[in-house]
Amino acid sequence: MFGIRRASCRAPRVRLTTPAAVNQCRYISKASPPPLAFVFDIDGVFVHGPNVIPAASKAVAMLEGNNPFGSRIPFLLLTNGGGVSESIRAKKLTKQLGTTIDDQQILQAHTILKTKASQYADKPILVLGGKGNECREVAEEYGYKHVYTTLDVHNWNHAVWNFHDQTDFERAAARKGLDFSQIPIHAVFVFHDPRNWALDIQILLDIVQSGGVIGGPHLSPKQQVENPIEIVFCNPDLIWKSDFARPRIGQGAFREAFQAVYKSLTGQHYPYVQYGKPTEATYKFAEKVLVDRLERLYGVRSALPPVYMIGDNPESDIAGANGANWNSVLVHTGVYDPEEGPPRHRPTHIAEDVAEAVEWAIKREHARVKGSGRQP
Asked: With contact defined as beta carbons under 8 Å apart, do 35 and 365 qualify?
């Protein structure tokens, strides 16, 4: 562990007045930024479900200033999870980790959908995943004005899937008085892991086969794929690490199930857009957010310093970081099990936990700074 150097936020500052610009010290610092930045996965790195991983507190202390640079090190939290707003996730993590996390540090699987809101703001869309109205509310917060769920569709006509009886909670979440034979769906966004795969796959098939009108006549398979209703999956993870002993299947498994049924019906593969780690689009989006954050923190816009991605899943965290030419550190506290052999995607470094990963990265960059003759 490093010696204590609490020199954070000593540079001259200008007080901010807007919440969007609030940084870790609530000021824009005129000091130079530290020579590195971090992007962390959340589940399997900092937490297991509701439980905080013990090494998290040590990692947070180093990020907050207990490091050879004597300053707070900027970081983002990049997760393939979601289902709630970034502000709700930030508040929860602030409580769990014991350090202030603001919503601009949170990049969930569906955060990137903010960039598509202008395209579909005035068009009916369907969102899948999450509990009740949570994903609908997130989509509306992003700027989508006509957002529907499969519970709305089922409430309109229970015969769309006879094998489900809505709970009181679901009935309260469903919107009433809608006629989906008159509401053409223009796009489907899978924000989070669906709760009812059978209902959701059935309605998704209805939409793509009819060109958007649920219950409408089917187009030919050729027409369906040549002029498709856009489907966006936000999380490609086949499995993920929860507080259960073994990894659980995720949204990537739902996508595979939908595609298998669609191919069985039509003989074709349905085109879709994929976001989430390890896709290039998600890492490019994270880089833009990180550059914007550094500008807010330090008052100057500059190129990214070396970025270290700390993750537990070689297939998402490490593959994506390597593709983005970031440094990557794989930890043993999540999906990756060293007893199953070396990871298919080789990280820059392997660490036992997030604290060991952060310490290794800081020492590495500190040595480079000293070797260059610059003041740390």
From this structure: yes
What is the residue-level pLDDT of the chain in tens, covering all 376 positions?
A: 554 333 333 333 333 333 333 334 444 445 678 899 999 999 999 999 889 999 999 999 999 999 999 989 999 999 999 999 999 999 999 999 999 999 999 999 999 999 999 999 999 999 999 999 999 999 999 999 999 999 999 999 999 999 999 999 999 999 999 999 999 999 999 999 999 999 999 999 999 999 999 999 999 999 999 999 999 999 999 988 778 888 889 999 999 999 999 999 999 999 999 999 999 999 999 999 999 999 998 888 888 999 999 999 999 999 999 999 999 999 999 989 888 899 999 999 999 999 999 999 999 999 998 877 665 5
Give the separation between CA 373 and CA 82, rounded to whole angstroms: 43
Side-chain half-sphere exposure of 78, counting CA atoms within 13 A: 34
Token reading at 153: 């569709």
Q: Give yes or no for a contact between 370 and 376, defined as CB atoms under 8 angstroms apart.
A: yes
